[in-house]
Amino acid sequence: MEQNSLELSLVIPLYNEEPILEESLKEIKLLLDTFKFLYEVILIDDKSRDKTVEIAKKFTNQNKDFKLFCHDKNQGRGGTVRDGIKMAKGSVVGFIDIDLEVPVYNIIPCILKIEEGFDVATIHRIYKLKLNYRWIMSKGYGWLVKLICKTPLKDTETGCKFFNREKILPVLDKTVDNHWFWDTEIMVISYYENLKIIEIPALFIKKSESLSSVNYFSDSVKYFLKLIKFRKVVKRYNNSKSKAQE
Question: pTM for the whole thing?
Fold first, then answer.
């Protein structure tokens, strides 16, 4: 890769990240500086109730490539990422969850795949320890997405996704969920819009449950109901495809 060959925007949604924020931002900055990208990092706080904004302000004041934006009202994680992508300036745009359970170095292969010509590059999480609740839910949900949405996608919910910005903006406008189901929407709609997608396998490193804003027990039912409702969107795409083939 030639130096400064990429224009990158990295979106990071924030919500009550006080315990992990500063160290995670340092890791991200070190990686991006090491690879000498021309980049911007867009931090968007979704109305945190702890010292997230205070920590983020201090960091952005000291690092000119990091910018902070704050929601007046809580929008949800999906809405936050959507906002960040829309304000991004880079030709390559992506996001990573600040808990870095998908390790930060996985940013690099995703960016390189976009540079190679893929429209969407995401991490397919590989779990080191299996047969725990999170693994079961991840695999079960992935199976349901394949079955209901009729796609070959392995991991729609991963918190590390990168896009060709020009290609993803029209898809972004077709998403409606403002919460965690947005990940499923953006991936499935990208697939049906014929975007070129690659899923890169990478180790998932489980962090403390207290650092996650996802409640895997209570959210399971919500995910399933949203997936059932989302069938209408998939059906419209399949009907359009059938008519085009007639």
Answer: 0.90
pLDDT at 55 over 80: yes
Which residue spans within the chain are E strands per DSSP?
7-14, 38-45, 66-70, 92-96, 120-127, 160-164, 197-204
At 140, is the pLDDT very low, low, confident or very high (cuts 50, 70, 90)? confident
Backbone angles phi, psi at 203, to 5 degrees: -70, 135
* C-beta neighbour count of 20 within 10 angstroms: 16
Burial 169-186 (b: 16+ CB within 10 A, else e): eebbeebebbbbbbbbbb
Distance between CA atoms of residues 143 and 204, nearest Å = 18
Spatial separation of the C-alpha atoms in residues 9 and 157, rounded to whole Å: 20
Could you tell me whether strands 38-45 and 120-127 are parallel, antiparallel, or unpaired per DSSP bridges?
A: unpaired
H or E segment and range at residue 238: helix 216-245
Q: What is the C-alpha separation between 190 and 163, in angstroms, rounded?
A: 10
* Helix or strand run (H / E) with residue 147: helix 133-149
Residue from 11, 13, 10, 21 nearest 211 by CA: 21
C-beta of residue 202 within 8 angstroms of C-beta of residue 100? no
CATH code of the region 7-245: 3.90.550.10
Q: pLDDT digit string (tens) for 190-207?
A: 999 999 999 999 988 776
Distance of CA 9 to the CA centre of its chain: 13
CA distance 157 to 125: 9
Q: Is the dihedral of CA 181, 131, 99, 153 positive or negative?
A: negative
